[in-house]
Amino acid sequence: MALSDRLQRFLNEQRIEHQILPHRETFTAQEVAATSHVPGRQLAKVLIVREEDGSHLMVVLPAPCRVDLTALKDATGKRKLSLAAESELARLFPDCQIGAMPPFGNLYDLPVYIDACFPRAQDFFFQAGNHHEVVRVGYREYEQAVKPVAGEFCLHERERSAGEGGVDKTYTEEESP
Questions:
Q1: Those residues with Cβ within 8 angstroms of residue 17's Cβ, 6 or more apart along the chain or in another chain
Q2: Bridge partner list, 58
Q3: Which of 4, 22, 109, 124 is the most exposed place for a label (fewest CB within 10 A)?
């Protein structure tokens, strides 16, 4: 599976310069960053969160971070949020491999919440809908095209080691829901 037609069309329509970088097949965001020789803070990790009413939203974090569900609840005004099951991902992203969804929730009718710590003046990398390609775009172009809600949604390594809880999930095809 290569870059989805949906994403390719969108990038072309928006005139977003992009580069596709192949890498060996990997399944975690940290492995993708290492294999692609991309700084983890510039590689998007995409998580899908289910709201109490059954709707979903997309959370985009730097690869080394974990999601802070409390901060996300505060930002969304939702009382109950949980990570989506793998079976939901297959339905929501029929043109992507599970765990390799690109951070373009707008293409899938999902609101996008992105952590504010992405370096805005640099390149932004994300999985291309598969486990063997990464796409590079300018962060500002991504932000302009997707219009995500930015906030502090991740727990950084120093916060995790201080004992704060966060949720991290990398979806793989081998997992069961």
A1: 137, 138, 141
A2: 48, 112
A3: 109
Question: In whole angstroms, what is the distance from residue 73 CA to residue 100 CA?
Answer: 24
Distance CA(152)–CA(33), nearest Å, equals 21
Residue indicated by tokens 């329509």: 13
* Whether the Cβ atoms of residue 171 and residue 65 lie closer than 8 Å to each other: no
Nearest to 103 by CA among 77, 78, 134: 134
Please state, in angstroms and as integers, the Cα–Cα distance from residue 22 to each residue in 1, 70, 101, 138, following that order.
12, 36, 16, 18
pLDDT tens-digit series, residues 14-43: 999 999 988 878 777 787 777 888 888 898
- Looking at residue 168, its amino acid is D
Q: Whole-prediction pTM value?
A: 0.84
Strand partners, 126: 135
Q: Residue 85 half-sphere exposure, CB side, CA atoms within 13 Å?
A: 6
Burial of 34 (0-12, 13-18, 19+ CB in 10 A): middle
Burial label for 169, CB within 10 Å (0-12, 13-18, 19+), is middle
